[in-house]
Amino acid sequence: MPDQPLPHRAEGSALAVGGIQRFTTIDYPGAIAAVVFVQGCAWRCVYCHNSHLQERPKRRRPAAQPPQPSWSEVRAWLVSRQGLLDAVVFSGGEPTLDTGLPAALADVRALGFLTGLHTAGMAPRRLEAVLPLLDWVGLDIKAPLHDDGALHDAVTGVRGGAGSVRRSLAILRAHGGAFQLRTTVHPDWLTDAALQRLQQELRELGAPHSVVQPGAWPKGLQPLGRNPDPRVVDAAQTWSDVTGGA
Ligand code: SF4
Prior knowledge:
alpha/beta
């Protein structure tokens, strides 16, 4: 199956920045980093906590959303962070869908920062193309990838994504660079049995187990970060106990 249908913008155009986080110690293992959020995603995950970044960048941003800096403005700010930050992580949205990502990664490397990527693995060929520019990748595994992928389809709101994620995982393993698998737990969508199945799949593939993180409620319910539902936290803790943590 080809990559998920995507391109947002003409080749060579600048990265569509959806926001930045100027300082983080949890988004790149062992490094002090900034996060650049990239606008646009092809999936509609039930627990997405960045749903304002899903819309394609060529469309007008909702009036309620504040204007965001251009990539050249972010790059200029990064110059002022040299010596203060170790790494820059591209997150989203789904950064691999943006044709400006390779140039932005090259810019970050040229400034002397480590480069990181958060991806859901929906575009394996695009992921493969940027791997030489990356020092670390966090790959989200949202649900079991085998069987018929039905649960993965239900969580992401898009059919057929599990195959793309399987190929992305194979590409990461073949590349040999540093990566981490991550799974968001929401007890209404991923049961313990489904999570056990996913980790078993990863073991059979010879991949590392997926690090669990608590998920957010769907729209209209409790969002992650403010009042996380105790069941979500409990589920993540339980699963960490089962797997032995990260
Ligand atoms: S892949 Fe990420 S950004 Fe896209 S809908 Fe899912 S959680 Fe949101």
